[in-house]
Amino acid sequence: MSKIRIILFSALLTVFMSVNVSAAVDRNEIQAQIDGNNQKIAEIKEVKDQLHTMANLFRYYLYLDSGFSDVLSQKWSDIHEIELGIMKENTELEQKIAVNISHDPFTVTNLSAGDFDKMLAGTGLAGSGYAFVELEETYGVNGIFAIGVAMCESGGSEPLPGNNYFGLIGMQFADAHEGILFFGRLMSSNVYAGKSIADIGKVYCPANWQNWADKVVQHMDTRINML
């Protein structure tokens, strides 16, 4: 580790409280909302079928004035519009939790803890998949990018003393979970937020940033291929 890097990390820690924490995305809550909407859609379909049947009865079998059947048809159209609105909302909700494999440090993947655990198999971070889910949901940081940095910095081949897998100078953590979330908070700070991997490298590893960025991407690709 270079002396410049140590100085930079010290400076970063002094401004660390200035963070841009993204709005937390609770996937379970969103899925519950989608499920609730699907139930509403099913109920609406039943009502639409009943209205359609009633309109046909009045129009074709009872030989009554079609005025009432027209009222039923209008009700059907009104309910159909409500159904379309709920379906549109579901599409938007599903996009929020859709899996999105990306190299962008701030595009969350929405992978499950099990998916991350597949990537972490055989490393010192094995079994920490839930922490990378939490990192994405809390800080809006790409979990695969975080794994790539951990692999680049420490190799991740075995548990580390102090659980410092991200090469953070002088830092120690009670467990891997704490270290992962610290990294997420660091990345969401004003120093890094919104930057590309290369631009992050210019601050995170200034002495050798291009090589660092290339290795992070390589490690990301290796882990992606494990899915």
Would you spell out the secondary-structure blueprint of this structure?
Layout: H1 3-14, H2 27-61, H3 67-97, H4 113-120, H5 129-139, H6 143-154, H7 176-187, H8 197-204, H9 209-224
Helix pairs in contact: 2-3, 4-5, 5-6, 5-7, 6-9, 8-9
Strand content: under 5%
Compute the number of strand runs. 0
CATH class descriptor name of the largest domain: Mainly Alpha
Overall radius of gyration:
26 Å
Polypeptide structure, described:
This protein is mostly helical and 227 residues long. The chain has two domains: 3-25 and 108-224, Lysozyme (Orthogonal Bundle); 27-97. 64% of the residues lie in helices and 0% in strands. It has nine helices and no strands. The protein has helices at 3-14, 27-61, 67-97, 113-120, 129-139, 143-154, 176-187, 197-204, 209-224. The protein is elongated and about 85 Å long.
List key phrases describing it.
Lysozyme; elongated; 227 residues; mainly alpha; 9 helices
How would you briefly describe this protein structure?
By secondary structure, this protein is mainly alpha-helical.
